Amino acid sequence: MMKHFTITKRQEEHIAILEINGELDAHNAFQLEQQFKTLIETEAYHIIVNCSNLEYIASAGLGVFMAYIEDIRNLGGDIKLSNMTDGVYHVFDLLGFPSLYDIHRDESEALSSFKTQK
Amino acid sequence: MNGSSSNDRAIQLGHFEQRTLLETGRDLIESQDPEFILNNLLLISLGKLRVSSACIIVHGPGEDRYVISKGKGRFSHLEGQMLNHEPEIGSLKKGVYHSRELPELFEGLELSKDAVMFHLRTSTHHIGFLCIEPTFRSEAITTQEQDFIENLCLITSATLSSSRMFEELKKINRRLDRKVHDLDSLFELSKDFNQMQSIDELSRTMKFALLGQLFVNRFLFLFKEGGQVRALVQSGLQIKVLEHNPLVLFDIPRVMAVETMADFGVDSSSTDELEAWATYLTQQKIHYVLPVESQGETLGVIGIGNKSTGQALAVDELDFVLSLANLVVLNIKRIQLLQEQLLNQQFQKELELARTIQEGLLPKKLPFIEGLDIAAINIPSKQIGGDYFDLFRLNDGGHLLSIADVTGKGVPAALLMANLQAMIHALTLQETTLEAATGTINDFIYTNIPADKFITFFWTKIEADGKTLKFVNAGHDHPIVFRRSTSDPMNEFNAQVEQIELNEGGLLLGVLPTLAPYTVSYFTLEANDVVIFYTDGVTEAMHPTTEEEYSLNRLKKVVLRHLDKTAEEIKNAIISEVNEFSNHMRFDDLTLIVVKKE
User: Fold this and answer.
1) Structure pTM?
2) Cβ-Cβ contacts under 8 Å, A93 against chain B
């Protein structure tokens, strides 16, 4: 059975914000992949993924983040993560993502981090 | 946020890995989609190893190359590309490979020296490799990480090989589906064909079936009938198909490519002709020839090209074409049989009509003539010839007896006979002589019938005295008078009976215009004279096995044997002997009149 997973997209100035909701696993990972591909095609390289409603993330979901981060950074942008619940952060942390990814407590922090970089 | 001790952390990580393997196992079991399976393997590996580029290469069985099936990061643009390398599959025993071990593949994928290839395999099959490019991370891949990915690769490989099998099954199923579909359409078509009444309709339907079912727009269907070949269906070809001798194509023993068919020439000239055909058909982009047999004989030949997409026809599709053509040939034969039957029915109707005409023309009842014993019979053959006889009373107390045989059979002969009958009756009402009337009839017939038709005709006026015959014989079988001779009773039997032929008159009717007038002759009957008037249906009746004719000789003998009997008895004796001789087979009308002078 397909688990519940949705993505909502917003724009804050030049920064694209993806809110991912529900459970991100092997079956719906392609949805997030598709979003990243579209953003790269439209040259929106500054991306925040707001994880406030992300209930669960499987390994395949983590893989999606890895698959695009290098491309986007090479293009002068970044993917920043924000608003993770403790459970979700625990998984990211377990796998060592904090050393590779810019992970923020909340969205505004992530936004300002983009702005100061700029 | 991270308050755990390093020991706790290791345990938790172990739990997470187990969970991932379990979930992956479940996902894999649920999915039969190789695309999903490969993607999942890549994403989990990327996530777990914290690298951003990886790809999966799959070995094509029986081929010396790999295809990059799926790629992430810098490999994502290489999906679908080929990598030429023939692996020594037997020596690939390890789960993990590094750059120095498979240098060709590492170079082909431009992998760094730190890259790792995980072997995708089952216990029996080499599937390919998961290639990890760890450029994004700084530290080397740990043994624990490597073990995890190896495990992941193992369960993925198992599913992958079963899903490849599944794909294979799907392909076979698709083929079966296609077969069922083909059979369904053949069944439908055969029902349609059965309803069709014309060969044109059949040909048209065949054309659309080939276009619609196989998307083939170049084809040719030749049909042989009585040594003649017709192009029944033709599509996409330049005309003048039958420029070469088409009969050689009917010697081709089986379905074959056009290029090879010249090998099947039975002699050098047919080989040449087949070569000419091969050149022509190749020009016309016809690639296959298929002989269509019915009851062991090749009745049709199909030439067929590629699909409009350029694809060549598969074996299954050629089978379909052949089955279709078989149906068409069968139905052509059915229609032809039907047409023959219709024609036959038509013919039977015509014959009925001819018989009715003929019956109407013959006298229903013979007139009574004082001093003459008369018997007559007309037996029409199945096909109706043109025999005619008549006997009726004239105004002066005399009678007119006519017998004729019109050439030909059926309605034309019956109509011509009707004309003759009408003229005979019309002319007798006029003040004219028998010989002049014969000339008039001849001229009329001559101008009104085709050159190959004619009438043999004999008529005689029996004068009112019942013994004087005035006659004209226009080419008819000579009537014979049998007269018992009293002058020389000591002679043998044959010599005792005189046979006088009534032969004078002129040419048969309808051959030439009346240049010389017909002559009239006289004959006077004596007591006990027997006169036999007949048509060739009597003398040419055929013996069923020896094909011998009954003959004038046999006729004379039977008459002689029954000379003392009544006209009716003589007639019956002749008919029964003729019937016995011919075993009742009759190919021509038979007419017989016996007149006996009392």
Assistant:
1) 0.46
2) 1-2
Give the start-to-end residue ranges of the domains of chain A: 5-113
Residue A56 in contact with partner chain B when CB distance is under 8 A: no
Q: Is the pLDDT of residue B394 over 70?
A: yes
Q: Which CATH class is domain B196-336?
A: alpha beta
Backbone φ and ψ for B199, nearest 5 degrees, come out as -70, -35
What is the per-residue pLDDT for B132? 93
Looking at CATH, the fold of the domain delimited by B362-597 is given as Phosphatase 2c; domain 1 (3.60.40)
CA distance A66 to chain B (A): 5
Mean pLDDT, rounded, for B367-395: 89
Residue A1: pLDDT band (50, 70, 90) is: very low
Which residues in B226-318 belong to E strands, given as ranges? 228-235, 256-257, 288-294, 297-304
Q: Which pLDDT score, from 0 to 100, does residue B194 have?
A: 85
pLDDT in tens, B163-186: 777 777 777 777 777 778 788 878
For the domain made up of A5-113, give the CATH fold: Transcription Regulator spoIIAA (3.30.750)
Residue B13 CA to residue B238 CA, distance in Å, equals 75
Checking DSSP bridges between strand A54-57 and strand A15-24, what pairing results, if any?
A: parallel
Chain A contacts of B27, Cβ < 8 Å?
A: 25-27
Which residue from B16, B40, B72 is facing A67, i.e. has the nearest CB? B72
Question: In Å, how far from its chain's centre is CA B289?
Answer: 18
Q: Which helix (H) or strand (E) holds B118?
A: strand B116-121
Residue B436 pLDDT exceeds 90: yes
Cβ-Cβ contacts under 8 Å for B570 (sequence gap 6 or more): B375, B530, B532, B559, B562, B563, B594, B596
| B218 CB neighbour count, 10 Å cutoff | 20
Token output for B489: 């009773």
Average pLDDT, chain A: 88
- Residue of chain B nearest A72, judged by CA positions: B73
Q: Given a cut of 60, is residue B488 above it in pLDDT?
A: no
* CATH 3.40.50.300 correct for B6-168: no
ipTM greater than cut 0.90: no
Among A67, A69, A90, select the one facing B43 at the smallest CB separation. A67
